[in-house]
Design brief:
Length: 313
Amino acid sequence: MQPQKIIIDTDPGQDDAVAILLALASPEEIEVLGLTCVAGNVPLDLTSKNARIVCELAGKTNVKVFAGCDRPMGRDLVTAEHVHGKTGLDGPNLPDPTMPLIPGHAVDFIIDTIRDHAPGVITLCPLGPLTNIATAFEKAPDIVKRVKKIVLMGGGYFEGGNITPTAEFNIYVDPQAADIVFKSGVPIVVMPLDVTHKALVTKPRNDAFRALSTRVGTAVAQMTDFFERFDKEKYGSEGAPLHDPCVTAYLINPDLFTGRHINVEIETQSELTMGMTVADWWRVTDRTPNATFMGDIDADGFFALLTERLARL
């Protein structure tokens, strides 16, 4: 089987970093055509820097990295330094990148890459706010029907929100963009908090990363050491959820996840529930299903895959 051609749209973030490392370690299943960076966890200058730091950590300096939108489509930027630290990659002491950003805008790269490939070839993998993806769809409507699918991390239903009572961070930062993407008609697979909160880096799992005794294994362990403090305090959980690597794990082994094909709408009007993913999990409306909304994960299988692949780098 040919590897899946993907674009990772990202706002690194420690868990974004692990998702990128997993993709770069899996060339049999995944061909990363480029990383497109967006403002989210931290501002754009840091997300585009962090993406290159991660590529260099993986030893993959040939990956194309583009800077994209520096603010949401219709709102002020909200960031998450309180979770990820002031750099977005707090934890390990990693050197500044030497590989350059590729000239040009991430949105144009997305548009050109989709146009340059046959319809149904490119999978988009957003790990942050959906600003770049929605902007590309608005700027070049012809590309929408050419996208194979979108596999994204965002939203939540049973778990509620993690930045407001009802909204998950990625969707909340740019709900207008999320609304455009969910209404696009592209097949969508959603990794919500309901799944990612079950992918917990417990101490034995983090010890397994550290026991790899590699630069990558140590850095990943240090990243999760840093940001688990937030989730342990907030949720009383055993460790930090690895949200974004669920996206790349799904591309490698979709059988790790179970969910339902349902309707998901994005709240864009109410400040009280802004950015809520209104997931019709129980199919109580007649709204047309537009997303496969995951509900469960084989966490042991997920971490076995992740540890095995990180060992390759």
